[in-house]
Amino acid sequence: MTSQSDFGLYIHVPFCERKCGYCSFYSVIVNDSRVDSWLHELEANLEILREKFLGNYGGKIRIRTLYFGGGTPSVLGISIWEKLFGILRENFVLENCVEATVEANPNSLNENLLSFLRDNHVTRISLGVQSLNDHELEILGRLHDSKQALHALELVKNYGFDLNADLIFAIPEQNIRSWDKSLSGVINSGADHISTYQLTLEPDSRMYASFGNVDFNVNGYYFYRYAQYVLPRKNFQQYEISNFATENHECIHNLSYWKQENMLALGRSASGYIDGTRYKFSHENSELELESEKLDINARAREAAILLLRTKYGIAKREFISEFGSENFSSIERILKQMPDDLFVRTRENLALSAKGMRVGNAIWSEII
Amino acid sequence: MSGNNNIRNFCIIAHIDHGKSTLADRLLERTGTIKQRDMKNQILDSLSLERERGITIKLVPVRMDYKSQDGKDYVLNLIDTPGHVDFAYEVSRSLAACEGALLVVDASQGVEAQTVANAYQAIEQGLEILPVINKIDLPSARPDNAKQEIQEVVGLDASDAILASAKDGRGVDEILEKIVAQIPAPSGDPNAPLQALIFDSVYDNYRGVICYIRVINGTVKAGQNIFFMQTKTTYPVNEVGVFKPGFTPVESLSAGEVGYITASIKTLAEAQVGDTVTDAMNPASEPLEGYRKVKSVVFCGFYPVERDNYPQLRDALEKLCLNDSAVTYEPETSEALGFGFRCGFLGMLHMEVVRERLREEYDVELVATAPNVVYEVVTNSDEIIEAHRPADFPDLGDIKEIREPYIKLSVFLPSEFTGRVMQLVQDKRGTYKSMDYITPERVRLIYEMPLSEFIIDFHDKLKSQTRGYASLDYEFIGLKASELVRVDILVNGEAADAFSFVCHKDQAYNRGHATVTKLKELIPSQLFEIPIQASIGKRVIVRVNVKALRKDVLAKCYGGDITRKRKLLEKQKEGKKRMKQIGKVSIPQEAFLAFMQVDDKPK
């Protein structure tokens, strides 16, 4: 049972063995002293949140979903994980946690770690496979090859975790066949959830520099469309713009973001949401700097509509109206009525984007905002 | 001053660059009107644009005192004729104020197109013409050829043409002597009722309008009440004077004399070129012949570079029109450029002059749209509509006839380029009239051609086809029925006026195709497919589609940073807001600009 006081908890683990050229998340190269001060910062962050936003939630906070993202959480040694869980147990009630995910890279995953995580509430591993094509992995500058990736997938499965595989499309020199191989490869290895991300580079990205003769201007349409076509045939439903899952394997933590549910986020650059306030820790000095904004009901309504339309569940009309008022609903509905019908799946009770609508989501949402 | 036997009123007819201004300077110098040390080069050029480009649009009139070789004193009035066809009407009024003209021809280049037209006008008005072969100091000078061309092209006897060099002064004395000897003294009765011709007028901030006049009959003096016979207004004269150069007051001006009057007139519109000034108490029974109201033939939009500068542009135009009554303007709004003015001009050079003056004198930076002409549409009920833009055209079914302004075009060119130029003119819907050889190497082509084709880029094309060796002249010959059509552009079924155009029916498909293709490139994909059509009336002649957006979503993880996601969407929305909506379609500003052929600096 979820209660109002249950939170999602996101821990940002900002460490990598090497920084990937395309990645824009905050991370640094792992070393012991950095890890120690990071653990200290997590506690400090929580104090800040308690002071500013958590006045109504005394004592230990009940956690419903837990997510360790990065960075590369799997680079942390077991002794660090022990300390980390120690901190979490001191501050949170983890007994009701229904889903706990750890992001991992194929090359930094080992059986000791998997075994430890399994014994400490972790239910799900999200593996940064990215591709099962060695040339594509090379272009991405990953530290693993396809063999290591398949091995890691198998290992995770053997330990009984739920398994997500991240895959990247629109990689230079990628084609539909290699994309299909990556998709079917992770499915055959037992993944029950696939996140697909389009390779997007900032203009100053290191990747441009390292592959001067490669054309990075790849059209993502075909790959995305193909994923939308092929994955449902293999029982993976697209439940969100970037995410596909088999039945009952949708990522509950991930969905919390789109449902505007309360989210504690700790660590540099981490963003969360508490009772109508969005906040984000600085990536420079998270102990001191925190940006936040309190949304009024109209802004929340519009944001809610946009976030809900990212998912296959869409906007449940009655709930939406009871939360934000019928005026907010009808003004959004008016805007959407101007658009072609085939972008939407409409029922009496519900309004969601069709697969086609999902492909042009930005154009739709930018009208609502 | 009694009698007018000692007055000679004359003008100089010359092609651009053939040395009109320099020759005028020499005459001033030789008659001692201006001391050599006071001479600025080409002192009479009044507009900075003229000096900059080395061309003369209009000289200031000047009065010279000359003692001839027979020992008599003469008054010589030099009145200029604007050296450009845009000002053809003003040329005719200037000629009407003179009894004679110097026809100046460059010794190495021979007769050019504009010279012929102006010489014919002078002949038509009965002026005595003195041919002058100028620039004989140049090594390439071939005075005999030039003489032959005057004889064969203009039809004047040039056997005793004066050989001159305005540069080194050769022939200047002979010119002065011949002016005195051959140009007739003005006739006219100083005691008859006043009749004075306004051949030019300028606006002065302190004195109001200054009318440049030639007194034909009667006498005018300060204090007298004068009556403008066309505008039917009466003013008391403040001052009368002559051009010494510089305004120099005199007691009176009588029949045969040239000078100016001021009368606290507020706007140029009240003292128009060609009007007749008479005595309010004792008016002449008839105005002088030849008055007509000048009409704009070329139009374009002027817009401020910065939208906020609209009031400055408006004020500048208002002031400029005080001393150029031939400019017309009315407010106009453009989807791409905002608020501006649709301005009318006598021709292309006039347009450029006005634009340059706005920049130089009023410090206004502006963008100008491509020039266009005015069509006359006759409806089935025989109503005549003046159509400035495509939107002014009535429905296709209601049009009986469309007329467009035509010009008679004369091109003088080296014969080797004849084929190319004929092709060029034909591509521009020109109709062949005649071709003759001036000399074995030089040809004159005469065509009739729609003005709309001429004003776009004809002059540039002609120059590039003939490596700059062709000269041209044109005159308006009125409106002619043409097989014109209005091509409508429909975006998603809605008419988009900004992209519609008028063209000959044979060009409709090509231009329609070019237009919709370009729009297809400029209109970004949107959530639905957008048909872009070109149609004549209800008949669609071309259609292309802007395909619906296929993908506009970043499948990307935001790490829960919803704020960043929202900001990206807000940015996208901002981008769309800057576009103009036609129906449901958002059209970027660049698309409008692309169809205006906007030019923000003079060529």
Which properties best describe this structure?
heterodimer; A: 369 residues; alpha/beta; TIM Barrel; Arc Repressor Mutant, subunit A; 2 domains; ten-stranded mixed β-sheet; three-stranded antiparallel β-sheet; 14 helices; 18 strands; 40% helix; B: 603 residues; alpha+beta; Rossmann fold; Elongation Factor Tu (Ef-tu), domain 3; Alpha-Beta Plaits; 5 domains; eight-stranded antiparallel β-sheet; six-stranded mixed β-sheet; 13 helices; 33 strands; 25% helix
Short description, anyone?
The complex is a heterodimer of chains A (369) and B (603). With 369 residues, chain A is of the alpha/beta class.
CATH fold category name of the largest domain in chain A: TIM Barrel
What's the mean pLDDT score of chain B? Answer: 86
Would you report the number of β strands of chain B? 33
CATH architecture of the largest domain in chain B: 3-Layer(aba) Sandwich
CATH superfamily of the largest domain in chain A: Aldolase class I
Stretches with pLDDT under 50, minimum 5 residues of chain A? none
Write a structural description.
The complex is a heterodimer of chains A (369) and B (603). Chain A is α/β, with parallel strands linked by helices and 369 residues long. Chain A has 2 domains: 7-257, TIM Barrel; 297-369, Arc Repressor Mutant, subunit A. In chain A, 40% of the residues lie in helices and 23% in strands. Chain A contains 14 helices and 18 strands. Chain A has helices at 32-52, 78-91, 111-119, 134-140, 146-158, 176-188, 206-210, 221-233, 252-258, 297-308, 317-324, 326-337, 355-359, 361-368; strands spanning 7-13, 15-16, 28-29, 61-70, 92-93, 99-104, 124-130, 162-169, 193-198, 237-240, 243-245, 263-266, 271-274, 277-281, 290-294, 315-316, 344-346, 350-353. In chain A, strands 1, 4, 5, 6, 7, 8, 9, 10, 11 and 12 form a 10-stranded mixed β-sheet that branches. The longest helix of chain A has 21 residues, at 32-52. Chain A is globular. The model of chain A has no long low-confidence stretch (mean pLDDT 91). Chain B is of the alpha+beta class and 603 residues long. Chain B has 5 domains: 7-182, Rossmann fold (3-Layer(aba) Sandwich); 195-279, Beta Barrel (Elongation Factor Tu (Ef-tu), domain 3), CATH 2.40.30.10; 298-368, Elongation Factor G (Translational Gtpase), domain 3 (Alpha-Beta Plaits, 2-Layer Sandwich), CATH 3.30.70; 375-482, Alpha-Beta Plaits (2-Layer Sandwich); 485-594, 2-Layer Sandwich (Alpha-Beta Plaits), CATH 3.30.70. Chain B is built from 13 helices and 33 strands. Chain B has an 8-stranded antiparallel β-sheet with strand order 11-10-16-7-8-15-12-13. In chain B, strands 2-3-1-4-5-6 form a 6-stranded mixed β-sheet, sandwiched between helices. In chain B, β32 (580-582) and β33 form a beta hairpin. Chain B is globular and about 100 Å long. Residues 41-56 of chain B have low confidence and may be disordered. At the A-B interface, β9, α8, β13, α10 and α14 of A face α12 of B.
